[in-house]
Every structure is written in C-alpha cells, then in structure tokens.
Amino acid sequence: MGAGVAAQALEIFPRLDKTWGDWVRRNGNIPCAIPQIYLVSFPIQHYLADPIDLALIRASALHLAEWACREDPEEIVLPRVSAGKQWQQIRPLLESLLDDRFIVLS
Description:
50% of the residues lie in helices and 9% in strands. The protein is mainly alpha-helical. Strands 1-2 form a two-stranded antiparallel ribbon. Strands 3-4 form a two-stranded parallel sheet. Helix 3 (54-71) packs parallel to helix 4.
C-alpha cells in the first residue's frame, strides 16, 4: 500500500495490507469490499512505482458499479484518486461510469 489515502487507511485498519494482498493474490487487482469495516479498495495502478492506469481505473469503476448494483447501498463516497492533470482525466471517466449513488470527492 502506498501513500495518501491508502497509507491513512492502513493507520486506521492495521493488517489491511495483508487482507488486500491476500485478496489480490486470489482474485487479481480488482476492487475488494471488506464488509466488516465498510471499506472498498479502488485500484488505480498495478505497482506503486507505476503511473496511474486509466484502463485499470475504468475497470475498477465498472467493477464497483456492478458491486453497487448487487449490494444496493444508498450512497458510496469515493476519495479523490490522484491529483492535478491526472484528476482532470479521471473525474469525467468516473462520472460517466458511476451512477448518482456515488459521490466523488474532489
């Protein structure tokens, strides 16, 4: 787990890196819902040193949208992923793929 939101989540939920690591080994680098703590991962890159991957972000958003259709939560808040010019590309992509239940922070 890297910096930013992921590092903050790890401070709040010790061993989260192990939980998500096990998930990724079993299922691939796709969003992972952890119902005990109401936390969902949202992969934006394959490795920490890699640049963001718009195809992975699109796949993550679609996977999350499918999950939301199954689970039917009232509201889902997504933290801002990435920054600067990258965010200018990511935000419209997310808004085009996710319905009104999703609140994307900016």
